[in-house]
Each structure stands twice: as C-alpha cells, then as structure tokens.
C-alpha cells in the first residue's frame, strides 16, 4: 500500500465531499469536479471519488493517492 501523507484523503473516497477540489502533491494541478477533466474525458460534475480507478493526474501522471484536499465544499 502506498505511503499516505497529511492532507491526503487516505485513499478513502467517502472521506471527501462531492464538491471537494483536490490538488496533486507533485505538480499542483487541481482537480475541480465542477470542471471535470478534459484530458481524461471526465464530464463536469464528476466528484473525485467517482473517477475511474485508473485515473491519474492529467498533467504529470501522478496516481490518485498523491492528491490532497484543498477545498471541501
């Protein structure tokens, strides 16, 4: 299991709200559910917890567990 760090959602999607924005801990790319992800063809309104398991940062390819919650709307 990957090492988790403070600020991460600890791999548990139920710990984050549907409107939460998360930031990549590697390149600082922000996933905003209101915008979705054009690179991965994720439609707007898709919460981070509903992203496919194989999804990774569209900017640097970091895995999901490297993302930290920045806004818990």
From TrEMBL:
Family under the similarity heading: Belongs to the rubredoxin family.
Cofactors that this protein relies on: Fe(3+)
Keyword field contains Iron: yes
Protein name, as recorded: Rubredoxin
Keyword Cytoplasm attached: no
Signal peptide bounds: none
PROSITE patterns in UniProt: RUBREDOXIN, RUBREDOXIN_LIKE
Residues of the Rubredoxin-like domain: 19-70
GO BP terms in the entry: alkane catabolic process
Top-level taxonomic group: Bacteria
Keywords of this entry: Electron transport, Iron, Metal-binding, Transport
Pfam families: Rubredoxin
Single GO term (MF): iron ion binding
């Amino acid at each position: 299991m990957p090492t988790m760090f403070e600020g991460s959602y600890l791999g548990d999607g139920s710990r984050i709200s549907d409107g939460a924005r998360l930031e990549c801990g590697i390149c600082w790319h922000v996933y905003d559910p209101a915008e979705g992800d054009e690179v991965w063809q994720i439609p707007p309104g898709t919460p981070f917890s509903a992203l496919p398991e194989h999804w990774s940062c569209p900017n640097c390819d970091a895995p999901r567990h490297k993302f930290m919650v920045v806004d818990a709307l």
